[in-house]
Design goal:
This protein is α+β, with helices and mostly antiparallel strands. The protein is 14% helix and 30% strand. The chain has 3 helices and 12 strands, in the order ββββββββββαβαβα. It has helices at residues 144-151, 192-200, 218-233; strands spanning 27-31, 38-42, 55-59, 61-63, 67-72, 78-88, 91-97, 107-110, 121-128, 134-140, 177-180, 204-208. The longest helix has 16 residues, at 218-233. The chain is elongated and about 65 Å long.
Length: 235
Amino acid sequence: MNVHDFYYDLPEELIAQDPLLKRSDSRLMVLNRENGTIEHKKFSDCIDYLNPGDCLVINETKVIPARLYGVKKDTGAAIEVLLLKNKGDNVWETLVKPGKKMKVGAKVNFGDEREDGSYILSGEVVGVVEEGNRLIKFSYDGIWEEILDSLGEMPLPPYITHKLEDKNRYQTVYAKTAGSAAAPTAGLHFTEELLEAIEKNGIKIARVTLHVGSELSGLSRWRRLRNTICTVNSI
């Protein structure tokens, strides 16, 4: 299998930049594998393709405002940090831009400088892992989640250029456990009402928590894509 087989052109003007007011009104393309026909539906119509006894698996992971913008301590250079995976003891695996400026020992500050010269959040690169991701140990004053909420931004895909006014629009309605650097995007179109209707139709709903983070890079990303394709083809 060649990853290039899945490349296709998508005109930028056709990429929606803002979510619909009602999530389930998003478009749904239905491909009939038996006769090759294509139908254009609303996402809420997905209930017509689920049968009693089927099991719908949803991922309850919750996206954190994982994108941070700071300045390198010694030079003042702008640094972008994307939190990928919590390694414990205030150490996170991160994706850093520009990575070349952030070698082991480099320090970065976030937020406004206070009168005493300190910052509410600071970090130091303590290691470099596979594919160049940086391990950053953070130090901060206060509650980590509150600091992230005030300084961080939702890590939207690069093809989305509009800033979200409501951070919750990049969460599924069933998100519970914080930890992801990106949303399980297919689930963004479900509403509470649609899920209730699905259950009333005799479809079982299984809930799992799989955080989206550093495991979706490089070869692992391709393996996940391959497994997803195999799963879809088996339905």
